[in-house]
Structures are given as C-alpha cells and as structure tokens.
Specification:
Layout (H helix, E strand, L loop, with lengths): L1 H15 L6 E4 L4 E5 L16 E3 L3 E2 L17 E8 L9 E6 L5 E6 L2 E6 L6 E4 L11 E8 L26 E2 L3 E6 L2 E3 L12 E9 L4 E12 L5 E10 L5 E6 L3 E3 L4 E10 L13 E9 L2 E10 L4 E4 L2 E4 L2 E2 L2 E7 L13 H13 L4 E5 L5 H10 L2 E5 L9 H18 L5 E5 L7 H14 L6 E3 L28 E4 L37 H16 L12 E4 L29 H9 L11 E3 L10 E8 L3 E6 L2 E5 L1 E3 L3 E8 L4 E7 L5 E8 L6 E7 L12 E9 L12 E7 L2 E6 L13 E3 L4 E8 L4 E8 L6 E7 L36 E4 L1 E6 L18 E2 L8 E19 L5 E2 L1 E6 L2 E7 L6 E18 L4 E2 L26 E10 L5
Parallel strand pairs: 25-26, 25-31, 26-27, 27-28, 28-29, 30-31
Antiparallel strand pairs: 1-12, 2-3, 2-5, 4-11, 5-10, 6-9, 6-12, 7-8, 7-10, 13-15, 14-15, 15-19, 16-17, 16-18, 16-20, 20-21, 22-23, 23-24, 32-33, 33-37, 34-35, 34-38, 36-37, 38-39, 40-41, 41-45, 42-44, 42-46, 43-45, 46-47, 48-57, 49-51, 50-57, 51-55, 51-57, 52-56, 53-54, 53-55
Helix pairs in contact: 2-3, 4-5, 6-7
C-alpha cells in the first residue's frame, strides 16, 4: 500500500513540476459538447453547465453509426469546451495544441481569443498558444466550434472539399480524433504539424540497408527553432532504443548555434548494426530519441517510434526486404468504423481490427479516399500491416482550388506520417490524374520524404511516365515495369446472417431488391456464394502472379475488410462487402482469404477450410464447398469418404449433392505426392441449451477514462459448450456498474438494433460494446433469452489519473507489437511456373503502324482491325523457336465481348473457340507445340453482352471499354506467349 501511495504522489508531482525536457499530455479528458450554435460559446464566462460531458475522441452524432444510411447522417454546428490548468513551472515555456482532426471545419478559441481555423476534415492541425495561456493555478478555457455540413466550403475561397463525399467518407462530426498538449523549451524541435504551424518536426530514415547483415545507415533530421532573445549553441544527440529500453546505438552532431528567431535543420547519421527489420506480420519498432543538449544538459527530447525496412518497386513487382511480395489485402474505408461509436475507438481496438487483417493473411490495407487518422497508422506499424496512404479525393481529377486543396493535404499527411514504416504507398487519387498533377505530387514527396522508400502513384496511371505504381479498380493489370495492383476488387455484398438457402432464415443467393432499377443480385449474396465469389475474383490475380512471366500482376485489395456505413447496393442501409461484419465477427470469406493468401506470393503453408456449418435439417442435400491451397481434397462424413472434390479456380473444391447426416464432416487436403498436409472438421452442435459470454478488452484491462470500450461476445451453445450455428435467438442484456451501453448491430428493423439492449444472435453469435465511465469499479453484464440458460460476466475498470484536464497516459501507450509471422524469410518467394517468349516482330493487314501496341507493355494502347472479319488477324514472329503451351491476352471490351478465334503455330492450328469474357486477361491453353510464328485469326462474329453485371453507385453499369457492337472486330491490348516450365528448369 505504501508503495502504491508513493507511485501516486510521484505521478501527481509530474503535473506540478514540468521537467526541462518537453512533456506531452493527453488532452482528451473533461470536455463538454453542445449540438447547436449558442451565441457567445467562445467566451470564457459562458455558462456550459448543462452541456454533455464527454471524453475525446467523440463524434457528437456517434449514435447514428450504422443506425442510418450515410446520406442521413446528422450535420450542423457543435461546440466543444474544456477547462484546464497548466502544470506549475510552465512560465517561459512553449505550449502547443495538437488536434489529430476535426470534422469538417473548426474555429478554435483560447480564453475567448480566436487562434485559428482548420477546414480539411482529414488531417491534424497545431496551434502555438504559449502567449495566450494563464499560468498555474489559473484556469484556461478552450472552445472549438465545429461544422460538419456535407457542403462545407473553404472560407477563403468558397471551395467545397472534394473528399467531403456522401458516398465514401462517413460524416462523424465534431472532434472524433485525439488531442494533445505539448510543453517545450524555447529552443525546441518543431512538431510535424504543417497546417497552421507550418512546421515539419523530426524525420528518421534508413539508407544503405543490408538485410542479411542486419545493418543500415540511420539518419535523424530535426527541424529546430530558437525562440530565445539570444543565440543558443547546442549539440544534437540521437539514441536508438529497443522497445525494452536497452540502448542499441547513440550518435550525434557537432555543436550548432542558432540565432534568435532562427529555424534550421540538424542532421546526424551513423551505421547501425544488429537491426531487426520491420516486415509483414512483424511489427518490429524502435524508439528513436532526438535530443538537444545545452552545456551537456538535455533541454528538449522527442521520442519517435519507427521501424526500418527496405523496399523496391521494379520489374512489375513490389519488394520488401529484398523479397517479392504480391499485394493481398483490403481496400478499407478510412473511417474503419464500428456500430454505436463510429471511428472513435480506443487504440487497442484499432490493433484488434487491423491485426485481424494480418491474421487473415492480408499484407496491405489501402485506406480509401482520405488519409487515415494517426491511431490507425500507428496501429498498422505495430501489427505489421502495409498501408497505402491517400491524401483526399472522391473519384476524379480536379483543377484550380480543389487541386490545391489536394496538394496541401498530401503535404500535411506526408509530413505527419513519414516516420511510420508501414506506409509503402502514397496514393494521389482514387482515379487517374494528369501527368502534370502527378509530377506535382511527386515533387511534394521528394521534398518532404525523399528517403522513405515509398512509391507514389494513383489508381489507373497505366501508362504514366511519372507514377511509380498504378492499377485499375475491379480489373486485372500487368506490367514488366512499374507495379500494377488492383486498388479494389470483388464488390459483392452479403450478410453474415445468411449461411445459405438451406439454413434459417433461408436466404436464396441473390434475393433482394433492385438497386436504382438495376439487378442487384450480386449485392445480396449468402455466405456460401459470397465466399465463392471471393475465391473466383482472387484467382484472376493469382493466375498472373510474380513467377508467371515477364509481365505480372502485383496483386490487389478486396473491397472491404469490415462492413461499413458507406454507400451500399444491397437490401441493408450499409455496405456488407466485408469479410467480417461491423463487430469484426468473421464471415466465411475471411477464412477463404486466409487459405489463399498464406504466403508472400504462392501459398507457403497448407490450409483447408470447409465453407458453412454442419447443422442442417433432416433430408437436406446440398453442395459442400472447401477452400484449400493443396492439390486435392477428400471429404469425409462420419469417417466415410465421399471421394475427391472437383477443383476450380485453383482453390475451390466442390462436392455435389452431399446428404446431411449428424456427426462430423471433415475435409483432408493432399499435396502433389498424395500426402495429407492439412484438414478441417466441423461437428454437428447439439440442441441450444445456454448462453455464453466472453469479454474482449485492452491487454492491461479496461480503464475508467470515459472512452475505453469492452467488447462482449454472446453465443448460443449446446450442452458441451459448442456454438449452435443456426441459432437466431433474441438476447436481452442488463448492464450494471460504471459503464455506458453502446450495443451492437443485427439485421432487422430500420435502425439495425443499434444502441438497443435487446438484439439477436446471428449464426449463433453476436457482440456488443460497453463504454467505461470516468468512475472506476465493478462492471457486470447479464444476458438472457427465452428457453435458454442465462449467462453473466463481471470485470473491473481501473482508475485513470487526470489532473485538471491533463493526463500523462497517452493513447496507444504500452501496446505491444505483433511479431507472429516472424522476420522476412530468407530466399526467393517467386516460384516460376512458365517461361515467357518475347515477340521479335509482327505483321497484319490493317493498321500496321499500331501493331506493336498489342505487345508493348502498355494497357492503354492496343491494335485493332478495320471491322472487317477478313482483316482480323496478326502473325507474330517470336524471338526464338519455342514449345508453346499457353497464350495470354487482354482483349478490348474484355468484360462484354467474346472473340471467336483460331491460333496456329507455324501453320498448325492449336486452338479454335470463343475467348471467355473476363475482368482483364484470358489464358488459352493447348498441347505443347513447337514453332516460331504464331497466327491469331478472327473466325466468327463477336459475341457481346455483360458477363459480370457490375453496377456503379450511380446505378449505371460499370464501363469496361467501348461497347459498340461489331461483327468483325479484333482488338488486342496485350498478348503474351509462354512455354511450360519443366521440372529441371
């Protein structure tokens, strides 16, 4: 007890005696909020006693998260106010405020004085309030007026921000992100807050990286400012420490002198050995302390948590730590939101969600449309998840003020996030931009992050000479030069509630309303169908992976990871394309990706997953689907073999007309040698008997800060504790203790049961939130359902120290890195599967000047004939005689048109038929045939008609090229020729 008392006294003393070094405080506690625009709310004497007390981050319209559709979100003015007292000893110090972001525009006041405005709604902003604050023990008052009008316009120009979009960027209003207060010496390293302050902070980077030796040259670069009235001479010291606090390396610079009011940059570099490199699923991080010393005494110290890794972007591929990595992941909405709370979750919950992506074998998250908040960026560092970081846009290039807004946001985001190792890509737009604009963005990158090892590009940009990566939305791109990866694919939607058409509530695949008058069956799938579609769509990228030739696909990201409140096409008022539901409960698609993606390029670890459950009604016969990365799969019912499944799309194995029998269903996967390498088994659950509750919380336990959350899972289980997968029981919850009910989500009424203390399980399981109050103590929750045994759970929230509005406990502090996948493996990840044979020359009858476009590694050029069938041919001469077995082509109107063609090699026909419609490339296989000249010839009329039925948010069918029908058109975008790779090659 005495020891605890001494610790408490020590913590309190921190608030009353600021050290010589800088101090950063958590500024999230003790706020009040009022929705509306009361006159004089900025005045320190304004009476706010009736306002709602909240802890930031807090969106004032959080109750609407998943309750209403994105277009119906409440907007308007909301005021936030807070009283605080500076610690003793701050006189003569610099004091800064850092807001990670407000939505959309904010007007900021200190003690009644307007200190600035911030309007982009996406990025952080800083304020120097040193001369406006009253020293201890006087009270200071900060007031913030926020306006989240969808049509908010920049005050100085009258220009609307492009990314304030009713389809993509959920409007969680007010101050939905963290706030900090920094106290520094007058000789200090600046903050990375370009908005308002115009400062750049600290930049840490590595060069001359040697992965095998574990060494690199590390440079620290700090922007320094001297606000003393006299010159100051100081030394710059850099300490690199392991997470356990042990010193890895210390180095510094010679003494430097800054004149009064001068701002400059200081550098120090050293070779560092014994490094652990950050990698996919290996979030190894270091704390880099940059210090300013005057007469040997540290007067300013900044801790930058970062990691080191090596990247390259060449040969159409992405390299991480000298190893090729095919992009496999998700295009996730930047809001990364949850029911009842929106984006404003504690840092541990960001880790929980982002780590799930890694555990599902995703290696990259592409945040969509606007730059993510710092909490998610730091979380991806910890869990080892690569990020593509956008600035801000909707879906088109823009000009004038709107383009300047995008440039400014990119500048701010790069400066703020350039020390986060998980960012490998800067995205300049969700659609193509002009070469001039791409050059401007690249110049911003080169100015503020020249050594970060990050590629800058945009969606599309297929023939750009400036962009360093590209890739379409939905379609398959390949390159032998800059990497091409799909920025989103597989848009289909499906509720977790619907297993299949044989399970209550018996949702037949595709049942649901039209979407803006168009067929929306693809957006109303059940889990069987949704998982299968995910397999089919990924196969397109797997088939063109690194190792399959000179031109390859660098992969792609599935839209989306978790169901989102953004625009939708299906029956619900939110988007259900996720592989987990809004409470992060997995759907079968999550496990399908986990199987297909378990490797840097090809699968490296054998996995098997049976799609669905094994609790059907008597007499049910249905197809059973198994996803496996092995060569063959055998199915067993109660240990009786049903034989091997039919393989399709590499990873899908189908067993038709399987009759249900209670007991066990087991899938065993075999390698090419017939050896069993993995299996999955599902047991029939017994009759529902009781409820089961379990608590998911921060690693060290819930803290009573008014913001922390507990995630409670409820399951319907049988007598042996097995989840009953067909249970849909209505659950009633009762909460007691110092906590606030935030609830969950389920399919049902218009409000999706959001905030309700009564909601059903789906597939036998659901989850709900409770939020800690500012009072610590015992929290209990009980759950009951008709005909089932009840369950209860209790835990304790821990005290959280706040002294006069300030806390030393920072968001995310103490959260450990995930190192589960281990360091980057040694050796190549590319397994060649075929040999590309290059074209030396080509001839044709019509448009001879463009014939090279058909094999020029540029997907925005093509060759086409004149529309007459007689001219629909090209003869290719190869670089050498080869034994061809495959030809891969991208044909114009690839989604809408089938081309009847014949293929001859040195006069011998090897293929005749209709090319399949596709989302990019088609591969035509034939018996190995030796030759040097290949004739591609049109032999019939084109067959037109959309094979995929993709509908855009406007209700229009997604365009896939020129749709003009032609009876004699041959239009080749790219063509490739391949030999089969023999074992000894």
């Amino acid at each position: 007890m005495k020891f605890k008392l001494l610790l408490l006294i020590g913590e309190i003393l921190l608030f009353h005696c600021v050290q010589a070094q800088r101090t950063t405080y958590n500024f999230n506690s003790n706020w009040k909020v009022e929705v509306g625009n009361p006159e004089g709310a900025e005045n320190p004497k304004f009476n706010d006693r009736q306002w709602k007390e909240v802890t930031l981050p807090y969106a004032w319209n959080e109750d609407e998260a998943f309750k209403v559709d994105i277009h119906s979100m409440s907007t308007g003015i909301a005021w936030y106010r807070k009283n605080f007292v500076l610690p003793k000893g701050t006189e003569g110090k610099k004091v800064f405020l850092e807001f990670e972001g407000v939505r959309q525009g904010g007007e900021f006041y200190i003690n009644g004085i307007h200190i600035g405005r911030h309007e982009n709604g996406a990025m952080a902003v800083g304020f120097d309030v040193s001369d406006l604050l009253k020293p201890s023990p006087a009270t200071n008052i900060i007031a913030v007026r926020t306006d989240n009008d969808w049509d908010y316009r920049e005050k100085s120009t009258g220009t609307k921000f492009q990314w304030s979009d009713r389809n993509f960027n959920v409007n969680y209003g007010g101050i939905p992100k963290n706030v900090y207060l920094h106290i520094t010496d007058k000789l200090y390293q600046t903050l990375p807050l370009y908005a308002n302050l115009g400062t750049e902070g600290v930049y840490i980077y590595a060069q001359d990286i040697n992965i095998r030796e574990g060494s690199a040259s590390i440079t620290a670069n700090s922007q320094i400012r001297n606000e003393y009235a006299s010159a100051k001479t100081f030394q710059y010291q850099v300490d690199i420490k392991e997470k356990n606090g042990s010193l890895l390396k210390s180095f510094g610079s010679t003494p430097t002198t800054l004149s009064p009011g001068q701002t400059d940059y200081i550098f120090a570099s050293a070779k560092v050995e014994g490094l652990h490199f950050w990698s996919w699923g290996y979030g190894y991080l270091y704390d880099v302390y940059t210090k300013l010393l005057v007469d040997g005494e540290v007067i300013d110290e900044v801790k930058t948590t970062t990691g080191f890794r090596k990247t390259d972007f060449k040969n159409g591929m992405v390299y991480l730590n000298d190893r090729v990595l095919q992009i496999k992941g998700y295009a996730q909405r930047t809001s990364n939101e949850w029911p009842g709370v929106g984006l404003s979750v504690p840092a541990w919950l960001s880790d929980f969600s982002n780590r799930m992506m890694v555990e599902g074998n995703a290696n990259l998250v592409r945040w969509m449309h606007i730059t993510p908040w710092k909490q998610d960026i730091a979380s991806c560092d910890r869990v080892g998840l690569i990020q593509a970081m956008p600035a801000g846009d909707a879906e088109s290039d823009v000009q004038d003020n709107r383009w300047e807004q995008r440039k400014n946001l990119m500048r701010e985001a790069i400066i703020y996030n350039r020390n986060n190792p998980s960012i490998l890509f800067y995205e300049c737009g969700n659609d193509n931009i002009s070469e001039e604009h791409m050059s401007e963005m690249k110049q911003i990158r080169d100015t503020y992050d020249p050594y970060g090892g990050r590629a800058i590009g945009s969606r599309e940009m297929l023939d750009s000479k400036v962009a360093e990566y590209g890739g379409e939305m939905l379609y398959i791109n390949k390159s032998a030069d800059q990497p091409m990866w799909a920025t989103e694919y597989s848009r289909d939607e499906g509720l977790r509630k619907y297993w299949d058409e044989y399970t209550p509530p018996y949702h037949k695949d595709g049942d649901g309303p039209l979407y803006k008058g168009k067929n929306a069956s693809a957006y109303n799938r059940n889990q069987d169908s949704h998982a299968i579609e995910n397999i089919i769509r990924w196969y397109d990228y797997f088939r063109e992976r690194p190792g399959t030739g000179r031109r390859v696909s660098s992969g792609g990201v599935n839209i989306i990871f978790s169901d989102t409140q953004t625009h939708f096409r299906g029956a619900e008022n939110y988007r259900r394309s996720g592989e987990v539901d809004p409470m992060r409960i997995p759907k079968d698609g999550f496990y399908a990706h986990q199987v297909m993606w378990d490797g840097w390029v090809d699968p490296e670890n054998s996995r098997t997953h049976i799609i669905g459950h094994w609790n059907y009604e008597k007499g049910v016969e249905k197809p059973i689907y198994v996803v496996s990365n092995a060569e063959e799969v055998e199915l067993f019912i109660n240990n009786r073999s049903l034989g091997k499944g039919v393989q399709s799309h590499r990873f899908l194995f189908t067993f038709k007309d399987v009759a249900w029998r209670p007991g066990s269903i087991k899938a065993v996967s075999y390698n090419e040698n017939g050896e069993a390498v993995s299996e999955d088994e599902i047991l029939t659950a017994g009759e529902p008997k009781s409820l089961k509750l379990s608590l998911i919380q921060r690693p060290e336990g819930m803290i009573a800060n008014g913001h922390d959350l507990g995630l409670i899972q409820v399951e319907v289980v049988d007598e042996e504790g097995n989840r009953c997968p067909t249970a849909l029981d209505m659950i009633k919850f009762e909460l007691n203790g110092p906590a606030e009910w935030r609830g969950g989500i389920a399919q049902g009424p218009e409000d999706n049961y959001v905030l309700s203390q009564k909601l059903p399980v789906e597939g036998g399981v659901n989850r709900v939130f409770v939020r800690a109050c500012e009072e610590a103590g015992e929290i209990s929750i009980s759950a009951s359902a008709e005909g089932l045994e009840s369950a209860s759970l209790k835990w304790f929230s821990k005290p959280y120290l706040v002294e006069k509005g300030l806390s030393k406990s920072l968001p995310g502090q103490g959260l450990d890195s995930y190192l589960g996948r281990g360091p980057t493996p040694q050796g190549t990840s590319v397994q060649p599967s075929r040999i590309a044979v290059e074209v030396m020359a080509a001839k044709t009858q019509e448009n001879t000047e463009t014939v090279e476009n058909s094999f020029d590694d540029n997907e925005l050029t093509s060759w086409k004939n004149d529309g007459e069938r007689s001219s629909g041919w090209i003869e290719y001469e190869l670089e050498r005689e080869a034994e061809l077995s495959e030809i891969t082509m991208k044909l114009s109107n690839w989604r809408n048109r089938s081309y009847p063609i014949s293929i001859s090699i040195d006069g011998q026909e090897v293929y005749s038929g209709n090319t399949p419609k596709s989302l990019g490339y088609v591969t035509l296989k034939f018996p190995p045939t030796k030759g040097k000249k290949v004739l591609i010839k049109l032999i019939g009329a084109n067959i037109d008609g959309d094979a995929f039925g993709i509908v855009e948010i406007t209700g229009k069918v997604e365009p896939s090229g020129e749709e003009k029908k032609s009876k004699g058109s041959l239009n080749i975008v790219e063509i490739e020729f391949y030999e089969t790779l023999t074992k000894n090659e």
